[in-house]
Amino acid sequence: MAIITISRKIASFGDETAIELAKLLNYNFVDRKSLEKDLLARGISEAQLKKYDERKPSFWASLSRERDSYFDYLREAVYEHASSGNSIFIGRGGFAILRNVPGLYSVRLVTADDIRISRLMKEFNYSEKDARALMEESDNNRDGFHKSFFNTVNEDSSEYNLVINTGHISPLQAAEIIKYGFEKTVSKEEADSGDKRLKELLLAQRIVNHISFDLKLQIYFLEADISKDEIILHGVADNAGLIQKAIDVAQEMSEGRKVSSAISMVNEYKPFP
Fold it and tell me: Percent of the chain, pLDDT > 70?
């Protein structure tokens, strides 16, 4: 499968460019509504979406188990969409979630502040003051979202294959530039290798989510490293029985891989609820 992620500042033609690119390549466009629908179907509440979706969580919200369920289900939804066919993702940290998938092509769209303010004034019939406030709020939330969930700076150009200033070009022109760069950069062999890796990552995330949210085993910060032959569980638990249960469940879902544990045992460990 081929995957393109688009990260953008508000009013930098993010969705508009993604739509044009999807038409040019005949790819599936995974937008905000698609992922929100998936998250709601997995049990994430509207309140959680308002609290975490491309937002900077408060100090207490960043420590909550609600944050973990939002993030883990978001990753599962992204892996699932990416595994289902050639896809274009907009926002939601797609470049960070998929950064270790071979063949990923990541793009960042930027525009000067004065142009963004002008676009927001026109789109929402805002005053310059209100448009600037919306722009700054959006930038702050998206910066905080990436820092909280991925410990990354979304302005770091080294995270992307391509950065485009859309200040003086149309969404179609931006899409044509992305298409050219993507086709010159990503080989069929890389895309095929990425498909295999996506299937592994999806399986690992499903194991984590089943243990954490279906079975509700109290293993905190649970992660699963997966390779062709092995799955290694990581996290924190307060008794050996829970760890063994997690190993047994993962083994049942492992598709023949060996399962081992690097879960730390800390007596009476209790995180923020």
Answer: 96
Residue 189: how many other CB atoms lie within 10 Å: 10
> Which alpha helices (H) appear in the chain, and where do they start and end?
14-25, 32-41, 46-52, 65-84, 94-97, 113-124, 128-150, 171-185, 188-209, 240-253
Provide, rounded to the nearest whole percent, the portion of the chain with pLDDT above 90: 84
Local structure of 30: helix, strand or coil? strand
Instruction: Report CA-CA distances (Å) from 5 to 24, 50, 86, 197, 255.
Output: 15, 22, 11, 17, 29
| Residue 100: exposure state from Cβ atoms within 10 A (0-12, 13-18, ≥19) | exposed
pLDDT tens for each residue of 238-266: 999 999 999 999 999 999 999 999 999 88
In sign, the C-alpha dihedral spanning 239, 243, 246, 252 is negative
For residue 159, give both structure tokens: 């995270």
Instruction: Determine the Cα–Cα distance for residues 18 and 175; give it in Å rounded to an integer.
Output: 7
Task: Look at residue 75 in the predicted model and tell me its pLDDT.
Answer: 97
Partners of 21 in the β-ladder = none
At residue 107, what are phi and psi to the nearest 5 degrees? -125, 145
The number of residues in the chain equals 273
